[in-house]
Amino acid sequence: VLSHNLCTVLNVPHDPVALEEHFRDDDEGPVSNQGYMPYLNKFILEKVQGNFDKVEFNRMCWTLCAKKNLSKSPLLISDEDAFKVWVIFNFLSEDKYPLIIVPEEIEYLLKKITEAMGAGWQQEQFDHYKIALNTSREGLSAWELIDLIGSGQFSKGMDRQTVSMAINEVFNELILDVLKQGYMLKKGHKRKNWMERWFVLKPNIISYYVSEDLKDKKGDIILDGNCCVEALPDKDGKKCLFLIKCLDKTFEISASDKKKKQEWIQAIQTTVNLLRVGSPPPHKEARQKRKELRQKLLAEQEELERQMKELQAANENKQKELETVRKQLEAAAARAAEEEKKRLQTQVELQDRFSLELEREKMVRQKMEEQVAQKSSELEQYLQRVRELEEMYKQLQEALEDEKQARQDEETVRKLQARLLEEETAKRAELEKWHLQQQQTIQMTEAEKQELENQRMMKEQALQVAMEQLKQLELERKEALEQYEEVKKKLETAANNTKSWKDKVAHHEGLIRLIEPGSKNPHLITNWGPAAFTEAELEERQRSWKGKKAASE
């Protein structure tokens, strides 16, 4: 599967027969003891022509090794960004296995990423990191470089999107050979209309797309040593114009501003000049120069180390010669010292004889002087002792006087303290009495206050009840007035009807009074005649009204 995928990505025809032959086996096991690397070199890598997609090839290699080697700790960059850092590592690493990237290339890459983020380069921070790195190893592996960039140590304060865009920009420049890219307007060759396109400048071609996602490619401008670029004056309402002349076509392009126009003209002219002299892209040439400079410095360092070793060897030889001479001088000096020692010993013996006699006389005289000095010292000590005793007697007298005065002062202070203590006790008793009186007064005030508060609460409750009863009586009064008005209206209506009826009867029948059936009870007589209700009916109605009023209360 690996061989087939490699052949597919590298555009090499796959030969399964060669694979089977290289790894053939029989009933007893594999016949060939050769590994996979000889097959890879002979049947795949030797057939590569260079017309393959390097990004897809790198992506397949990344798939093979990333899962096993990529750190499990969370990173500030995505897997896609980690893949791009891995590809950049393969481009900048040294040409020896195992692959490492030296501190100089790490500094170059971090500077490019920092510039792409628009941040300032922290040289002091990197110098500290470089010192710590040089003490432990020569460089970093690909996975350590991914951890370094993903940890955010040199991109503090930047969000994930900014770091991702910076890595993508550096990847486009170093791996995809994108020297410059951006939106500009291009004039069509047929319809002569202006369309916005995304231009991508590479070492020998300018491609333009519909948008920056590079999915819809609209054309290419092939560059060679015969191409040229020149600025154009503004026309047809378009500004910041410049012209790219090739052998078969010319292209009119409009930049967004004068700065972009000048940058594009300078970048295209630089690319054409490199094509004329046959130089590689700037970043590849810079990488080669950095590598040559490192090799030169390494060679100079090795030569310096060789010279230091030679000087050290010569110095060691000189040290050995000097050590031999020093030993010879020490032996001669030892012999001379021995002879001098013998001569001095003879001289010392003679001096000792004379010295002994002289010493005896000195000892006798010294003893006499010591005896006189001892007697004088004893006398002086006796006199000094007498003076000390007299001084001590005076001090004892003064001490007794001081002690007596101190006892008198102590007695005075003690009496004063006793008097102050009695006054303090009397004041404390008086204060306690005042405190008890205040406590009693406060308790009485609190009780009176509580009683007044209770009376106020009872009065408020009684007032609330009276207000509610007043509201209820007001409602009942309104209802009684309404009933009274209704009864009044009925009486007026009945009176009007009766008057009208009586007028009609009087008109038709004279003063004849109608005989009407009625109750046996005596009727109420009004100035209009018999009343509409009897006393029993009025009492019944009054009881009914009182019952309704009691029910409403």
Description:
- By secondary structure, the chain is α+β, with helices and mostly antiparallel strands.
- Among the domains are: 1-175, no CATH class; 178-280, Roll (PH-domain like); 379-419.
- The protein is built from twelve helices and eleven strands.
- The chain has helices at residues 2-9, 16-22, 36-44, 54-69, 79-92, 103-117, 123-134, 142-150, 160-174, 258-277, 282-509, 535-552; strands spanning 25-26, 29-30, 180-187, 194-202, 205-209, 217-222, 228-232, 241-245, 250-254, 525-526, 529-530.
- The strands form three sheets. A seven-stranded antiparallel β-sheet has the order 6-5-4-3-9-8-7, with helices on one face. A two-stranded antiparallel ribbon has the order 1-2. Strands 10-11 form a two-stranded antiparallel ribbon.
- Strand 10 and strand 11 (529-530) form a beta hairpin.
- Helix 5 (79-92) packs parallel to helix 9 (160-174).
- The longest helix is centred in the last third of the chain and has 228 residues, at 282-509.
- The model is unreliable at 509-515 (pLDDT under 50).
For the largest beta sheet, what order do the strands appear in spatially?
Answer: 6-5-4-3-9-8-7
Question: What is the share of helical residues?
Answer: 55-70%
Spell out the helices and strands N to C.
HHEEHHHHHHHEEEEEEEHHEEH
Sheet-strand content, in percent, reads 5-15%
Structural class: alpha+beta
What oligomeric assembly is this protein in? Answer: single chain
Count of helices? 12
The overall pLDDT average reads 82
Estimated radius of gyration: 64 Å
| Overall spatial form | flat
Biggest beta sheet attributes: 7 strands, antiparallel
Q: Distance between termini?
A: 103 Å
Subunit structure: The SWAP complex consists of NPM1, NCL, PARP1 and SWAP70.
Main location: membrane
Protein name: Switch-associated protein 70
Keywords: Cell membrane, Cell projection, Coiled coil, Cytoplasm, DNA-binding, Membrane, Nucleus, Phosphoprotein
